[in-house]
Amino acid sequence: MMKNTSRVQPAALPVRSMRRRRFRVATLAAIFALFALYVAWHEARGPGERHNDELPITQAHADDASQPSNAAGTPAAVAGGDLVKRGEYLARVGDCVACHTADKSRPFAGGLPINTPVGTIVTPNITPDPDTGIGQWSDADFLRAMHEGIGKSGERLYPAFPYVEYTKVTDQDVMAIRAYLKTLTPIHYAPPGNTLKFPFNQRWLMVFWNLFNFNEGRFVPDPKQSAEWNRGAYLVEGLAHCEECHTPRNFMQGLKTSSRFSGAVQAGWHAYNITPDKNSGVGNWSDDELAAYLSTGAAPGRANAAGPMAEVVTDSTQYLTQEDVGSIVKYLRSLPPISGGESRPRDQWGNPAADDVTTLRGTTVNAVNGAQLFIANCATCHNWTGQGIGASAPGAYPSLIHNSAVGASDANNLAMVILHGVTRTTKQADVLMPAFGTELTDDQVAAITNYVTKQFGNPQSTVTVDQVARLRTQQ
C-alpha cells in the first residue's frame, strides 16, 4: 500500500501545476476581455468630451479666489493687491505664458502644439473665460490639478503638464497664482484638440504612469540645510520645474531620477548638464556667471541662451529677485556631479581663425564650402576670426570661441541656431539673430556647422545633412 501511494503522489503534482496555469491564463483572458469591451464601448461612443485643461502649466484659473492665509496667518484678502502681485511673480517663475501662448495677441489662451513621442498635445486656454477657459474652476479643482494632476471633471491630466513638480508648491503660492490669473482678460478661444495615438489617448492609463513616476506631496524643507538652500530647492524642484528639460526620460517618458539634471534633448535642442561636474556640467562656472546667465541669458566666455532657454530667460528668470537667483545657484551647486563622458568643458574649446579670408580671396569655389559660407553669412556679426564683436557688452555679438554651443559634444544646438535664429529680450538687451533656415539648404547648414565646430569649437562634433533635415522640422 505504501508503495502504491508513493507512486501516485508525483503524478498529482503536475496536475495541480497545470490547473494553476490554466487558472492564471483564464484570469488574464478575463482581464483582456474586459479591456477589449471597454475599448469597444469607448469607440462606439465616438470621441469623448474634450477637456480644456490638458496641459495647464499652472492649471491656474481665477474663479472667485477664496481667501487663503498668508505666511503670517493673515487672510490674503486683507492685502489682495499684494496677493495678485505675488501671484504674478510666481506665474513668472513657472513660466506659464510660454506654453499657454501660441498667439501673442492672445496671451494665456493656449493653442500651442507640443510634440511628444506619443502624439501632439495642444495647450489649453487658462484665461478666466467661463466657456473656453478655466473660469468655472473652484479652488479645490485648481489645487487638485496642481497637486495631483487631476482635472475639474476628475480626468487624469497628461504629464506634459508638470504636476510632478507642481505638487511640491505650497497651497498659499498656488492660490496666489490663481488670484493673479483671475485678473487676466478673459479670452473666448477654444484651442484645437490633442492628437494622441491609441492607447495613449486613454486618460485612465495615467493611473499606472503615476504609480511609477509621480509622488504627490508638498516640499519639505531640509533642517540640515540653510534657508537659502531650501528656497533654491523649492524653486528648482517645484514651480520652476527645471528637471522637465534638464533631466533625461525613462522608457515611460517619466523623469530618470538617477540622472537628475544631467541634460536631455528637447525638440531638437540639447538642454545641457547643469550639475557641478567640471567637464560635463557647470562646475567651472562662478556663482556670478550662473546668476548672470539666469538674469540676462548671457555669460561671456561661457554661453548665450538660445532656443527654449532664451524663452525661459525672456519670460521667466530675468524677473526673479537677486535673492531667488542666488538661492537657485546655491542649490545647483549642491547637486551630485554627473559626468557625461566629456574630457573637456564645452566652453573651453577653440582658437581664432588665422588666414581663412586671405586663403579664399581670389579662389573659385565650385562646391559647398563651410569657410566661404561662414564668411558670407556669419562673419559680419561674429567676425571672420570667430571672436565676435562688442566683447561682453549686453548687445554684443557673441564670440564663437569658448562658447558652449560650439564646444558641446553634439552640434545640435549650433545647427538649430543657424536654422531658427535667436530671439531673447531682456532688460539689458534685445538680442536677435536671424534664422537662416529659409536662406540655406540642409547641406549648406551642415557645412557651416561643421566648419564652426572644427575651427572654433569641438572638432569631433559634427552633423550630417540628414540630421539637419530632421532638426529643420523641430518646433
Mean pLDDT: 85
Helix count, per DSSP? 19
Task: Quickly give the structural class.
Answer: mainly alpha
Unreliable stretches covering 5 or more consecutive residues? 1-13, 35-78
Radius of gyration from CA coordinates:
27 Å
What is the H/E string?
HHHEEHHHEHHHEEHEEHHHHHHHEEHH
Which sheet architecture does the biggest sheet show?
Answer: 3 strands, antiparallel
- The total beta strand count reads 9
Question: What are the main properties of this structure?
Answer:
475 residues, three-stranded antiparallel β-sheet, two-stranded antiparallel ribbon, mainly alpha, 42% helix
Description:
The chain is mainly alpha-helical and 475 residues long. The protein has helices at 2-45, 80-94, 96-99, 139-148, 163-166, 171-182, 206-213, 227-239, 243-246, 287-296, 307-315, 322-333, 356-360, 370-377, 379-382, 404-407, 412-420, 442-456, 465-472, and strands at residues 113-116, 119-122, 195-196, 264-266, 269-271, 298-299, 303-304, 422-425, 430-433. It has a 3-stranded antiparallel β-sheet with strand order 1-2-3, with no helix packed on it. Helix 8 (227-239) packs across helix 12 (322-333), helix 10 packs across helix 12 (322-333) and helix 18 crosses helix 19. It is globular, with a radius of gyration of 27 Å. Mean pLDDT is 85; it is low at 1-13 and 35-78.
Please render the helix and strand layout as text.
Elements: H1 2-45, H2 80-94, H3 96-99, E1 113-116, E2 119-122, H4 139-148, H5 163-166, H6 171-182, E3 195-196, H7 206-213, H8 227-239, H9 243-246, E4 264-266, E5 269-271, H10 287-296, E6 298-299, E7 303-304, H11 307-315, H12 322-333, H13 356-360, H14 370-377, H15 379-382, H16 404-407, H17 412-420, E8 422-425, E9 430-433, H18 442-456, H19 465-472
Antiparallel strand pairs: 1-2, 2-3, 4-5, 6-7, 8-9
Helix pairs in contact: 2-6, 4-6, 8-12, 10-12, 14-18, 18-19
